[in-house]
Design goal:
By secondary structure, this protein is mainly β. It is built from no helices and 9 strands. The strands form 2 sheets. A 5-stranded mixed beta barrel has the order 5-6-7-9-8. The chain has a 3-stranded antiparallel beta sheet with strand order 3-2-4, with no helix packed on it.
Amino acid sequence: MTSQVPLHEGLFTWPATKPQLLGSRCSQCAEAAFPAQPDCRSCGSRDTTIVELGDHGTLWTWTIQTFLPKHPYLSGETADTFRPYGVGYVEMPGGVRVEARLKPNSPDQLKIGMPMQLDIIPFCTDENGDQRMTFAFSAVAEV
Ligand SMILES: [Zn+2]
């Protein structure tokens, strides 16, 4: 049976029906970080705890990755199978900016300040046949 396992541990709650991005928050100055940091970047305190950063944010800045990233790149894509994708920073509630792959992949689909939601997506299949999952952000559907 194929199982879905996180590409990297500790980035989001998994398995979960409504996954949340995980970061750290400093107990001294309340600075939040993603990925979680053992030391606070703001005040140097080691008193940080893992917190859920949420599953929604707003797009802070973005670009389109139009060529295959340099090695090491684990997805198994080659120059022939590569498809452009969006990449950007999403600002989470509390102000942490998270660098992430974006599902929208053309400039007319992306606008600074637009609401984004967390998506956990398959990244590649490992040698055990398990799907390795990573996180991305997609546009919140218009209502
Ligand atoms: Zn701090």
